[in-house]
Amino acid sequence: MMQPLITERLTIRELTPEDAPFYLKLLNEQPFIDGIHDKGVRSLEQARQHLADGPIASYRVHGFGMYHLSLTRGGAPVGIAGLIKREELPWPDIGYAISEAYFGLGLATEACRAVMSYAREGLGLPVVVGVVSEHNLASRRVLQKLGLEADGSVELNSGERVVLYRNPSQPRQIPSDR
To answer: GO terms for molecular function, please (predicted)?
Structure first.
């Protein structure tokens, strides 16, 4: 189990079934649907199941997953960030979703920097990449702030074509369509 990470403004911890109300709200915000995907989660029970089958199962299987983000002062939940292991990629990719009420405050970058540091130092992962829809400019900027650079595109199992971001100092280990 991951010990909570504390940044200047955020507390980052594993998601639990008790996070279902916030998770349900986040997954149904229009920016999440437009920028990531409509997960079709519409009830608290579906949110609990999605947490159990997704992030919570990932902790068990991979040792990492998506994490809950809250403001350190006051504890308000603001989003999720973490690592996703996709079948079609040999390395985990970093992802995040910030609640619309907290857009524009730099919380995504702050959270992702902490997750990247944890991936390297806490988990010993040699490579973490990013994948993002071409039209999602805000997420592309976050990946660039993490030192990742666009390096072609890949097709996910869903059929979606995404831009691949990787650390340019590491040898290419992921085939792209360039």
So the answer is: acyltransferase activity, transferring groups other than amino-acyl groups
For residue 175, count CB atoms less than 10 angstroms from its CB and return exposed for 0-12, middle for 13-18, buried for 19 or more.
exposed
Q: Strand 129-132 and strand 161-166: pairing?
A: antiparallel
Model-level pTM?
0.94
Helix ranges (DSSP H) in the chain: 20-27, 30-35, 44-51, 57-62, 107-117, 137-145
Q: Side chain identity at 107, as an amino acid letter? A: L
Tell me the CATH architecture of domain 5-166.
3-Layer(aba) Sandwich (3.40)
